[in-house]
Design brief:
Distance between the termini: 32 Å
Largest sheet: 3 strands, antiparallel
Shape: globular
Strand content: 15-25%
Strand order of the largest sheet: 1-3-2
Structural class: alpha+beta
Order of helices and strands: EHHHEE
Radius of gyration: 17 Å
Length: about 120
């Protein structure tokens, strides 16, 4: 939720087999690609996910198509700690106080969707 400022949010889970250097080359630009290529393979996934969520959050904030190559200039981007095995970021046109909250729904309030 944000009042008075556009925001973009992205969350990604680790564990999918991908060629992180090649993806970075296509979407994240030469600087990120060089950094990932120089890393040990075991460390690439975490660093790629951090860069990817920042990039996607920026695109979403601007309302641009996902997968674009626009640099996140002029935005405030904050990474959100969502625990091991995932990465998340929030982008905005101005500084925001980022707060993560957890909502729990009692199982008794959940209902199955009607069959169609």
């Amino acid at each position: 939720f944000a009042l008075g400022s556009p925001v973009g949010v992205d969350v990604e889970l680790a564990g999918r087999e991908r060629d992180f250097v090649r993806l970075a080359e296509r979407a994240l630009g030469p600087e990120v690609t060089r950094r990932l290529a120089a890393m040990e393979p075991a460390a690439r996934e975490s660093e790629f996910l951090r860069a990817w969520v920042r990039h996607e959050a920026a695109l979403k904030c601007r309302g641009e198509p996902l997968g674009g190559r626009a640099a996140p200039a002029g935005l405030v981007i904050a990474e959100v700690d969502v625990g091991p095995g995932a990465a998340a970021a929030v982008a905005s046109t101005e500084a925001l106080a980022v707060q993560m909250m957890t909502w729990t729904v009692p199982p008794s309030t959940l209902q199955a969707a009607p069959a169609t």
